Amino acid sequence: DTAVSQTPKYLVTQMGNDKSIKCEQNLGHDTMYWYKQDSKKFLKIMFSYNNKELIINETVPNRFSPKSPDKAHLNLHINSLELGDSAVYFCASSPDSYNSPLHFGNGTRLTVT
Amino acid sequence: QQQVKQSPQSLIVQKGGISIINCAYENTAFDYFPWYQQFPGKGPALLIAIRPDVSEKKEGRFTISFNKSAKQFSLHIMDSQPGDSATYFCAASKAGANNLFFGTGTRLTVIP
Asked: Could you say which residues from 4 to 43 on chain B have a Cβ atom under 8 Å away from some Cβ of chain A?
């Protein structure tokens, strides 16, 4: 009965590969997000979708492409992985896109070698 | 540019003591100030939040103090417990938006 679940939990891959991270929420929320937490624990928003529509797209390399097939799912595809992409990626959801509490998943630790 | 500045980076408190974490911001358009708690291996979870129309909000042992003129807000944890040991993040966003700008985090350790 996990509220926001993301897979995989760990991802180890080599430079230049393409990988995807999946996220699903069963809270009935309208808005979903991807956040990146770097090695110093700094959290930064990458993308936000509201009812499958992209509403926030921060300065992120276009190698990162989010996809929302429905409002309960938000996947993140990363092309041509680089060493600097190593981080923990968190999916989150919220009831709406107006100052409402974020519910985070437990993260995907991506290591690029 | 860091939109929300947080201090200290780490904090060690004796059990039963008061933990205080401070944050400051510059953007006067910020209208929502939540605090998130993160345990190792887990995602952040909302602890408590405040809007600038009040100067203080208390939930159990956790209190946010807000100083609008100084553009500062702080989290006070009363009677700190070892189970409170975690990383705490302050954050801010503009009215009607959910683009949260997070502080750099404070690693709190409460020793028995």
From this structure: 31-32, 34, 36, 41-43
